[in-house]
Amino acid sequence: MSYSVIHNLNITLGTGAIFLQAISALALLLLFFGPPQNRFLDFIDRRFLLIGFLFSLFTAVFSLVYSEVVGFLPCALCWYQRVFLFPLPFLFGVALWRKDRKVINYALPLLLVGFVISVYQNFVYYFGNPGNAPCDASGISCYQRLVSEFGGYISIPMLSLTAFFSLIVLLLTVHFYSKRARV
Predict the structure, then answer these.
(1) Contact 110/81 with Cβ under 8 angstroms?
(2) In the chain, how many domains are there?
């Protein structure tokens, strides 16, 4: 792949990640500080299975695009996150097929563990000491700046953190908004 194609992919995914971070923050603000009924949260509540399926599929596919098409080999922490990310399209897909809103019970533990690993990886990536990186022994380090867009804010670890965070916000929004709307 040419540098310009990879750069355009990075910019597109980075812009999407920033947008998703803003949408997730808005959903949390509306959930905890907004009116009891809200069109935006109603939309999320009605379509969360489709949103969760498409978003988890999108993140899994682009994780594979970066490693298998672009050639950015994942570090050990990326692999651990993939363990918790790759089952999600299947869980959301089956839940969408069966219209099973209880997928929250199965997906949330996977998302929380992946999120914790992602938070740690982002801490190591942005604030850690390169000599103490947990992934150096594998030959692929968390410190490689394979993606660095928008002044270094968007990186592969930040894309992963955004994916886990947004899916967690989606599930928490549906869980708490459904209860609040029934009251």
Answers:
(1) no
(2) 1
